[in-house]
Structures are given as structure tokens and as C-alpha cells.
Amino acid sequence: MAVVSSLFRYPVKGFTPEPRSELVVQDDGRIAGDRVLAFRFADATDPEDADGLDSWPKSRGLALMDFPSLARVQLVFDADTSSVRMSEGNRVLADAALDDAGRQQLEAAITAFVERSSDARLLQRPGVLPLRLVGDGVTSRFQDRARGYVSLYTDGYAPMVLSTEMQDPVAAFATGYCSVWPSGPPTLKDFARRADLIPADKWSTARLPGPNGYGAVSGLSASLCVSTQTKRPREAWALVNHLTSVESELDYQRLIGNLPARTDAWGAPQLALPVLQPFAEQTRALSVTPNVIEWERIQIEIQSAAERVIRGVQTLDAALAALDERVDRLLAKRRALLDRGAIT
Question: Is it the case that residue 178 has pLDDT exceeding 90?
Fold first, then answer.
């Protein structure tokens, strides 16, 4: 039987969560008081346009991913009084209402906190200061995507929430909240650590699907390089050989779950587990992503288009037409460089 062990919400986008004894789910599926405020950079107080939808990227405001010192700040949001209290340990940084004077007090307090932290240098970038606290304290509108949700499937196999909105994906998977979890081999370590919640006989793995049966995937990789200017080439290459040896790759798999890139390592007994066999088969069907730097941006555009279709914002034909136009604009500079012979 599923048990709720704790509840949280994020009243200020990008900050640490606020523990709650109860949560209210609104008619639109969002949590009341969640992501109703955001500390934005001076040049990012208005939403960006993502093909007609509002977007508030974390990179244009205070967020833990860029300002890790914010983890020391505890937030309490009182919707009844429309006020925010920020603390660092036992010291209150600010406790103010969301009127003009209160917002200025909160902005000054968080600016002073960051200026005293190891992240202070990030405030010196153009367009960052002065920080601005935006949001009405009521409307949940600062999700990473305009709708605040994403769905992989329209048939109910996955919930219509962003992965970043799901506080405990392992628990969600264990309780059947989502029945399919596209992920990588390190996730198996998470399952092993929480075997009391999700026993090994309750789940399995499978290869990714493709248009006609199994699909190909791009292998995640990293490169080890040795500078031609090194004064110790022998030792440098010895380190590379050690890191890429069968023994080392098997050690990595035991420690963090990453699977070996070397095919001659797959004969090791530790990789004979049934749940690893789909990954072994997948390594024999690798594909490479397009060799253009715009590819990651195009991936994001594809995800945005899929979301609009699934959420009923656009028809499939309209989304594909808009996606084609958007990608065409993204690649315009590359085409111009190719025409001039600047790149090949």
C-alpha cells in the first residue's frame, strides 16, 4: 500500500522546497502556492515567447542550478497574509508582505545574501542586477514550460507532469503513478537502494522502441585527451589506459551503474543480470546524433511541439508546420556559413 511520507511545494521557483502538512490540488492540476513567485534578473522580468506560449527559463533568474548557495535559504510562504519569510539557519533574512515595500525588502535581502556567498560573481554579469521579485503569490505560472506539464503518452501510461515536477520519481514508479520510465542504467542503482519500496520482482527493463520494432539510441560518451604539450606523455597515456581498461569500466559499473563502453567487458559475470541484457543488446544498435551544434536546441523544440499537441493547444499538422519553420530559422545561419564555404 502506498504511503505518503512527506509533502513539499516550491513557492519561489528555483529555491528549496517548503515542507507542508497538506497540499491543495487546484482544478488545473497544479498545487496551490507552488511556483507563484520568482526572483528574476533585471532583463528577464517578462516571459519569453515559446511559439505563442509563455516561458520562464531558470537560467534567467535565481535558481539552485546556477546559485547553489541558495540551498541554505529556507522559505515559508503564507498565502493568507501574502507574505514570504526567508531564513538562513536561525537568522531571518527577511519577512515581508508582497506589496511594493515588501518586495523591495525581499529583493534586497536575497541580493545581500548572494553577495556574501561563493556565487557573488554571478551577480556581476550584464543584465542580472537589480533582482526583481515577480508573481502575484496566487497564480502558478513559473513552471519550466508554459503549461507546467508534459506527457510522453496520450493513453494514460504516464502522468501529465514534468519530470522536474515529480518530487520522487522512484516512488511514483513504484506506486504505478507512471508505468513506463525512459531512463538509463544508473537508475538501476536507485532501484537497488530502495528495494524496500520497489522490489526487484516488480519491474524490469526493455529496449527502446523504434518505428519498426526496436529503436537505435545515441550512446552517451566522454573523451579523454592528452595534450601534445605535456611533459609527461608516458604517464598521461598510462592514466588514459587505466581509466579505459576493462577492470576500471567494471569498477565504474559497480560504483555508479554506468555500463562499459568496451564490448570485451560485457562477458564479466557482474553484467549477466537479466535487467542488463536489454542494455547489452542496445549497445549493438547505436546511432549518432546529427553533427550540428543546433541539434540540442532542435530536440527542445521537438519536445515543445509534442507538448502542445498532447495538451490540445495545437493540432498535429499545425505543430509539425510550426516546428518545420522554427527549425528552418535555427539552421539559417549554418546554411549561410556553408554557402560561403566557412564551414564544411
Answer: no
Q: Indicate if the pLDDT at residue 127 is higher than 60.
A: yes
- The per-residue pLDDT for 150 is 34
Q: What is the dihedral of CA 140, 144, 147, 148, to 10 degrees?
A: -60
How many angstroms separate the CA atoms of 87 and 110, rounded? 10
SS3 call for 286: strand
224, with CB counted inside 10 A (0-12, 13-18, 19+), is exposed
What are the φ and ψ backbone dihedral angles of 44, each rounded to 5 degrees?
Answer: -140, 40
Query: Does residue 147 carry a pLDDT above 50?
Result: no
Nearest-10 Cα torsion for 323, 295, 286, 344: 120
- Domain residue spans of the chain: 7-134, 209-288, 295-339
pLDDT at residue 111 tops 90: yes
- Distance (Å, rounded) from C-alpha 102 to C-alpha 299? 41
The confidence score (pLDDT) of residue 28 equals 65
Which residue type does 74 have?
Q
Gap between the Cα atoms of 331 and 294, Å rounded: 7
What pLDDT band is residue 125 in, cutting at 50, 70 and 90? very high
On whether the pTM is more than 0.70, the answer is no
- Residue (of 118, 33, 128) closest to 84 by Cα position: 33
**Nearest Cα to 165, choosing from 271, 308, 25, 305?**
25
User: What is the distance between the alpha carbons of residues 112 and 168, in angstroms, rounded to a whole number?
Assistant: 33
State the residue for C-alpha cell 556559413.
Answer: 337
Could you please report the per-residue DSSP string of 190-206?
HHHHTTTTS-GGG----
Mean pLDDT of the chain, nearest integer:
83
Cβ count near 120 (within 10 Å): 14
Q: Is 10 exposed, middle or buried (0-12, 13-18, 19+ CB in 10 A)?
A: buried
Are 169 and 194 contacting, i.e. CB atoms less than 8 angstroms apart?
A: no
What is the tens place of the pLDDT at every residue in 292-303? 788 888 888 888
Distance, CA of 190 to CA of 206 (rounded, Å): 17
